[in-house]
Design brief:
single chain, mainly alpha, 8 helices, disordered C terminus
Length: about 190
């Protein structure tokens, strides 16, 4: 039980202000469908943290910090460019505009955003420390949900009052800055 509580607390705190919280807000602003986004975040987190507990240490030894830094930096810059592409979403949904839909897009985006993130690394370390794989993965997943689900719900309400184009421009600038910081950093950047 200690592994579950400690894992929940550490990840919930570590996630505050993290790039995946920004991603949750962007998804809420882009799609305006909180339920599939929250379920997508949950699914991506379970899979990502499950893999982190099982193979995270191996990945960290196989991919050097410089390669990881370039992957993160270029991914953030690509996300910044994507944010500037005008949306063509309507009230009928995104299925005709995205081959994966809201849920699938959220799962893929969140899973990739968590790669090399401090919460993924924390999951690896906590699983090793407590030798309680299931409790750690359950705890880190709950911590992620406690930090990100409210952002989705509040973000959906916020975008009804704030012009979506402004949200996209601000998000693009933030992702561009994160990409530049990642490319200029030595070793694996901490971008939260």
């Amino acid at each position: 039980m200690e592994a579950f509580l400690v894992s929940t607390g550490i990840v919930a705190l570590a996630e505050m202000g993290d790039k995946t919280q920004l991603l949750a807000l962007i998804l809420a602003a882009r799609f305006r469908k909180p339920w599939p986004i929250v379920l997508g975040i949950f699914t991506a987190t379970v899979v990502n943290h499950g893999l982190a507990g099982a193979v995270g240490a191996w990945v960290n030894t196989m991919i050097g910090p410089d390669v990881l830094r370039w992957i993160l930096g270029l991914s953030f810059i690509a996300m910044a460019i994507w944010m500037l592409i005008p949306d063509k979403l309507d009230d009928e949904g995104v299925s005709e505009h995205s081959r994966w839909g809201v849920f699938g897009t959220t799962v893929v985006a969140f899973f990739l955003a968590e790669m090399g993130d401090k919460t993924q690394i924390a999951t690896v370390m906590l699983a090793a420390q407590y030798n309680a794989y299931l409790w750690v993965v359950l705890g880190t997943t709950l911590g992620m949900m406690l930090a990100n689900a409210p952002v989705v719900w509040l973000g959906d309400k916020l975008v009804k009052k704030v012009p979506i184009r402004m949200v996209h421009i601000i998000s693009a600038v933030i992702f561009l800055v994160l990409g530049v910081v990642a490319l200029l950093a030595k070793g694996v950047p901490s971008l939260a």
